[in-house]
Amino acid sequence: MLAKLTTKNQLTLPKAAVEAAGNAEYFEVEVRSGQLLLTPVRIQRADAVRAKLAELDLGNDDLAAAVAWARKLPATAKPSRVAEVQGAYRGKATRKHGPAKPRKP
Q1: Residue 96: is it exposed, middle or buried by C-beta count within 10 angstroms (0-12/13-18/19+)?
Q2: How many CB atoms lie within 10 A of CB 93?
Q3: Which residues is 86 bridged to in the sheet?
Q4: CA distance linking residue 91 with residue 105, whole number of Å
Q5: What pLDDT score was predicted for residue 51?
Q6: Calpha distance 65→9 (Å, rounded)
Q7: Can you tell me the mean pLDDT for 55-62?
Q8: What angle do CA 18, 11, 44 make, to 5 degrees?
Q9: How do the domains of the chain map onto residue ranges?
């Protein structure tokens, strides 16, 4: 099979090669004696997070407490931009530039 390298260093893999590799999204690239070796890789972010939690000796109770803490909105905090936009769509505009204009049907 033949593949062409573009001027932007992009390489399109032949469909048959990608299918043979299990339709992987990521590949480990290795250079051996002037040859490129592509090995399909499955990214396992959740495993890395679990390993870090185990390393820090954090359990479910610790995680629940951290989530509860993160979800608290301090009394001095400004409302989020999402709340501003949602208010504007309900006719309760909180934007800096005045109320939202009604849309034409």
Answers
A1: exposed
A2: 16
A3: none
A4: 16
A5: 86
A6: 47
A7: 88
A8: 55
A9: 13-72
Angstrom CA distances, 78 to 74, 81, 102, stand at: 9, 9, 26
Task: Determine if the pTM surpasses 0.85.
Answer: no
According to the model, what pLDDT value does residue 71 have?
Answer: 87
- Measured between alpha carbons, how far is 72 from 89 in angstroms, rounded to an integer? 25
Angle, CA 37 vertex, CA 35 and CA 39 arms, to 5°: 180
User: Going by C-beta distance under 8 Å and a sequence separation of 6 or more, which residues neighbour residue 11?
Assistant: 3, 4, 5
The tokens for 68 are 């509860």
Q: Which residues contact 28 (CB under 8 A, 6 or more apart)?
A: 38, 39, 40, 41
| Closest of 11, 57, 60 to residue 38, by C-alpha | 11
